[in-house]
Amino acid sequence: MLPHAGMKTFAQLGFPGRLIAVEGIDGSGKSTQLHLLKRWLEDQDLKVFLSEWNSSELVKSATSRGKAQQLLTPTTFCLIHATDFADRYERHLVPLLRAGYLVLCDRYVFTAFARDVVRGCPPAWVRGIYSFAALPDLTFFFKADLEVSLARILDGRPQLKFYEAGMDLRLSSDIYESFRIFQGRLLEQYLAMSTEFRFHVVDANQTIEAQQQIVRAIVSARLNLDDFRRTRLPRRSAARSTRTS
After folding, report:
1. What CATH number is associated with residue 68?
2. Which domain holds residue 59?
3. Residues of the chain falling short of pLDDT 50
4. Distance between CA 22 and CA 178 in Å, rounded?
5. What is the CA radius of gyration of the chain?
6. Contact yes or no for 5/128 (Cβ under 8 A)
7. Considering the entire predicted model, what is its pTM?
8. CA 155, CA 211: separation in Å to the nearest integer?
9. What pLDDT digit, counting tens, does each position of 36-76 carry?
């Protein structure tokens, strides 16, 4: 595989903010861990912003319609998600990183590198589409067993979704078997990228608490969190007494 064209993190590019991304197959628990991290950082009065994959208002409705009617080909799937990412990158991520925020991303370009390639798109082409994006300063990959991920998904809702199970690839007529095959292939792609992009691999079969302790320890060790603390304005009473003295 070709390396990512940018190959520089936001820190290396001189941004005052830092971007933390989480990746993992569906049901790995990455979103839960990121929301817990967000709450922990906010409790320390730090400037934090969370951005989720496929959440841009520009294309969200079109994506939902395409999925509902099962109209998305591998190429349109790739391009519509790239449009979503580019919109959020330009309007949210970069401005906030310039403003010194800790930006948390529930999935980043690596999701596209894994999903689109498994769906048959050329790796170099996919990476070229996202070549404008800098790399995260920290990337956590939550590695969960397929059966654990499947059980977590089904615990929250009655059935699997068409695309998360890879049914568009006709891997199996059984949706659960299709999920295992599709997500297994995604897992292989993620593991292949883990060294190249220096993922922090977390055993996602552990308890939520154990995983969160690992995440917080790495974030605390790698980042100076005091750099992202909100500026406290002086109390009004203190300012008034200064003027009168």
Report:
1. 3.40.50.300
2. 18-244
3. 1-3, 5, 233-245
4. 24
5. 20
6. yes
7. 0.87
8. 20
9. 999 999 999 999 999 999 888 777 777 777 667 666 788 98
